[in-house]
Amino acid sequence: MRTRTQVGIVGGGPAGLLLSHLLALRGIDSVLIEIRSREYCEARQRAGVLEDGSVALLRDGGLADRLDRQGLVHGGIYLQFEGQRQHIDFRDLTGGRTVTVYAQTEVVKDLIARRLADGGAIEFSVTDTEVADLDTELPVLRYTDAAGTRHEVSCDAIAGCDGFHGICRPAFPSGALTMWERDYPYAWLGILADVPPSTDELIYAHHPAGFALHSLRSTTVSRLYLQVSPDEDIAEWPDDRIWAELARRFELPGWALQQGPILDKSITPMRSFVSAPMRYGRLFLAGDAAHIVPPTGAKGLNLALADVAVLAPALDALLHGDEQAAANYSATCLQRVWRSTHFSWWMTTMLHRTPGADEMEMQLQLSQLRYVIGSRAAATSLAENYTGFPLPKGDG
Ligand code: FAD
Ligand code: DHB
Description:
By secondary structure, this protein is of the alpha+beta class. About 35% of the residues lie in helices and about 30% in strands. The protein has eleven helices and 19 strands.
């Protein structure tokens, strides 16, 4: 079946869904295709921290009813090392900036509900996705829908929002992309637990046995992470072992980690990856399709949202004959991407134990942590990067 749309969107994660909504607000039609089912997309456990800029973007798009009611505003984090837990006060250090804890799954649920309520075209559970005719002004998106019908959609532009393992980045002609990549020799074992958080702010813990993070999802649900080996078998981590290891890495006199039923358990590899440019002709990449950061700085979701905040007005202008913002899209996004890439690498290498590393690595990490706690300038640098920088103006 042959059809026509203005923007074809590959991928129904936060980037693709928000883009389809921002385009709709500008009166632009899109077709969004997603290989997974709606239920899968709404259950997939991932990030949880939104910068103020991301919250403002969702609010300005009329998407923040539930976020404003259920999101938990946080004015700082704790850094724990050498048996002490120190608070970094974002409000004080940055003139009032905060972050909001609201799970990516909830952002995705809100976006899907809104797109469907507005009559948006979303096809879940598609297969055999292809993008073609990229050297023309009318690229083509092909897919097979859940009922088995093959579709061919002619588009004025295609947005590749299909994550790191998607098909859009590999569709760039060979030689069109430069890529930078770093794999880390560790992974995160993440759990979602039905237990009230044992802390009022997130705890990032440096420990000789490895990094641990205490985050949260609500006043009754906690999210916790443990540094593990990248080839770790999750079957080797029964619930008792996870709780014992978390308790060890967060141990502090007079403080106890509350335990409860584990609702979800997964292992995430850690990688830094940037590919540039984020555009070839009328194919634009956004979010994890173009770049990956290790999760330690809580930046992946925020970067994906920031990309499409730049892309939506750029596509609007392009569709009305003005090429300038589309020409600037990649360079505008990459400035933020590289800042977040550096910050995430810095947080990651300061807090994780490298397998086989010598005692000097530990001493350098501890010196850096003491410096962040002891110097207002160093703490401010962490706070302003963590809370994020303002989004570029809408016309990119
Ligand atoms: P995605 O959310 O990956 O969305 C891409 C979508 O495209 C997916 O729904 C996928 O099914 C779909 N897709 C893929 N291929 C195709 C195709 N061929 N056709 C159609 N659709 C396709 N960040 C943090 O800050 N903190 C965290 O704790 C954290 N944990 C993470 C855990 C995991 C397992 C992963 C993978 C990422 C995690 N991240 C985390 C990163 C953060 O979740 C991502 O940066 C964010 O999801 C990026 O959004 P996106 O829309 O660009 O990509
Ligand atoms: C969460 C994830 C992160 O990577 C992080 O740095 C902070 C919080 C989370 O899932 O809540």
